[in-house]
Each structure stands twice: as C-alpha cells, then as structure tokens.
C-alpha cells in the first residue's frame, strides 16, 4: 500500500484516482502531477515502484500545498477573518453560512441539528409546570 504525505492510498484503484485521496488534490491536479512525473495515469497504485512514489512525493513537496500545510493555511485564514471581525469572520464564529445562503430554512448542515425552543417534550416536566 503506497503511502504519500502520511496518507495510505488505496491499492486497487488507478493512481489518478488514488491521488485524489490527498487533501488539496483533485482530478485535474492529479493528472497534472502524473504528467510532470511521467507516470502512466492508468497504472494501479499497487504497481507503482519506489522511484515513482518518491518522484510524486518530491513533486508534491516542492510545488503543491497539500494535507497538513493546506489545512493549517486555511485555519489561519479563518482565524484572521475572525480576529478582524469582518462579516465572514463573524459568520464563521456563529457557525452560519458565510457565502450569502439563506438561513431561515435550510442551512441545516452548517447550523447543526434543530434545537427546539419552548416546547416541553417530557410529560413529567409538563406536570411540574402546572
């Protein structure tokens, strides 16, 4: 099982698909990397030699921001927005969508599970209120 940048790539998939398991690499970037490294994109990940893996790793280290570095960079960007108190930073702090989507309905992915306010569900609690 090839390991690149601390991520185990699936062995039974083609290398052009396996590279997309790295954070920050999509399909187009994977093909670009393989063309630069002169590796056949239709080759399976299990068929890669050690030299192929090392050439991909060197290429990723030198030219692309992936995995931990990219995650750290994005986290710092969000923290900067929050420190400046700009609109997007405030939306990030409140866990609300920051790109103009509506929040009266929808936005459940960002806001989380619905929190019911004012409704008493437990019968014993309802009896105590009387």
Give a structural overview.
The protein is mainly alpha-helical and 130 residues long. It contains seven helices and two strands. It has helices spanning 15-18, 27-37, 50-63, 67-84, 87-93, 108-111, 123-129; strands at 3-4, 7-8. Strands 1-2 form a two-stranded antiparallel sheet. It is elongated. The model has no long low-confidence stretch (mean pLDDT 90). Residues 120-130 have a biased composition (Basic and acidic residues). Residues 101-130 are annotated as: Disordered. One of its GO terms (cellular component) is ribosome.
Annotate the secondary structure layout.
Blueprint: E1 3-4, E2 7-8, H1 15-18, H2 27-37, H3 50-63, H4 67-84, H5 87-93, H6 108-111, H7 123-129
Antiparallel strand pairs: 1-2
Helix pairs in contact: 2-3, 4-5
Termini distance?
65 Å
Shape verdict? elongated
**Percentage beta strand:** under 5%
Largest sheet: 2 strands, antiparallel
Low-confidence segments, given as residue ranges, are none
How many distinct helices? 7
Record keyword descriptors for this entry.
130 residues, mainly alpha, two-stranded antiparallel sheet, 7 helices, tRNA-binding
Give the gist of this structure.
It is built from seven helices and two strands, in the order E-E-H-H-H-H-H-H-H. It has helices spanning 15-18, 27-37, 50-63, 67-84, 87-93, 108-111, 123-129; strands spanning 3-4, 7-8. A two-stranded antiparallel sheet has the order 1-2.
């Amino acid at each position: 099982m090839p390991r690149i940048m601390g991520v185990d790539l699936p062995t039974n998939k083609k290398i052009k698909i396996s590279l997309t398991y790295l954070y920050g690499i999509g399909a187009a970037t994977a093909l670009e990397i393989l063309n630069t490294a002169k590796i056949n994109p239709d080759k399976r990940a299990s068929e890669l030699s050690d030299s192929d893996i090392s050439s991909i790793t060197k290429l990723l280290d030198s030219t692309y921001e992936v995995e931990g570095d990219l995650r750290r960079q994005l986290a710092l960007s969000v923290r900067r927005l929050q420190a400046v108190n700009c609109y997007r930073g405030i939306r990030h702090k409140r866990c609300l969508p920051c790109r103009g989507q509506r929040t009266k309905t929808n936005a459940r992915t960002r806001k989380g599970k619905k929190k019911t306010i004012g409704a008493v569900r437990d019968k014993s609690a309802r009896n105590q209120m009387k």
